[in-house]
Write a sequence for this structure.
């Protein structure tokens, strides 16, 4: 019993450290907090064709702990839009004890754990770009694929964790339009839900050398009474590289603390 209590305590402490909100002047990277250099300032870098260069490691592009607070909204602003069934589901959820993120499942859109960086990789050559990739260090060490070749969304899509994303440029702003999501991921650690009707539009604007603003419109008539828009101010993490992160589905990290995996066996 004593060993189980110790293990549970250690897991709680580690979780608190890994997902604590960073203080001003700090960037959390590689799963830990600590003083980091301030984001650089200077003009927006550009590719040889004159387009905005988004390449690099970024922190803070999406929500994690609280979609309202992280997204620049007032407390209760998103909650007030929840349809009755969705509000009841949010109230039933138990935070970290049931958070799919903590059981090694993908985070979906727009969630991005603030303890870990992402890396944007643009496909730029002498030809028009066909893809843009968003590499994600945290959780399952995965990626998003954004089609930049002008294609439309397929008429029929199998629901997936990150959906189907198509991108285009509107001036210096990258617009990412995504549909085809499953309903399994949470928007944040509180447990804000969504349905397979979810449609997201992300607008990424690099405002200077070290800063990027992401505005995300959430449109899900199955769970919310009207669309809402979140704003995230990301910072470049110069010198950071994505590190290996091993997290496997059916992870039983919570067992010592009495939290069995609610998603084991495809639940």
């Amino acid at each position: 019993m004593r060993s189980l209590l110790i293990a549970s305590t250690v897991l709680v402490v580690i979780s608190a450290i890994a997902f604590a909100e960073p203080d001003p002047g700090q960037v959390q990277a590689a799963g830990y907090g600590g003083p980091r250099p301030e984001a650089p300032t200077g003009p927006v870098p550009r590719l040889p064709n004159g387009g905005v260069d988004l390449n690099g490691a970024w922190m803070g592009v999406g929500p994690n702990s609280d979609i309202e607070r992280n997204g620049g909204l007032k407390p209760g602003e998103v909650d007030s839009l929840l349809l009755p069934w969705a509000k009841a589901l949010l109230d039933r959820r138990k935070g970290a004890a049931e958070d799919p993120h903590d059981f090694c499942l993908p985070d979906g859109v727009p969630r991005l754990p603030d303890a870990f960086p992402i890396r944007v990789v643009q496909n730029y050559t002498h030809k028009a770009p066909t893809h843009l990739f968003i590499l994600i260090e945290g959780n399952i060490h995965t990626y998003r694929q954004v089609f930049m070749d002008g294609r439309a969304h397929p008429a029929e899509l199998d629901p997936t964790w990150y959906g189907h994303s198509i991108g285009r440029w509107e001036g210096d702003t990258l617009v990412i339009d995504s549909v085809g999501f499953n309903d399994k991921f949470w928007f944040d650690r509180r447990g804000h839900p969504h349905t397979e009707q979810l449609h997201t539009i992300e607008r990424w604007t690099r405002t200077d050398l070290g800063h990027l603003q992401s505005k995300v419109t959430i449109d899900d008539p199955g769970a919310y009474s009207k669309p809402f828009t979140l704003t995230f101010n990301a910072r470049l993490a110069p010198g950071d590289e994505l590190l290996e992160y091993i997290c496997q589905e059916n992870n039983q990290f919570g067992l010592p603390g009495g939290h069995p995996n609610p998603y084991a066996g495809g639940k």
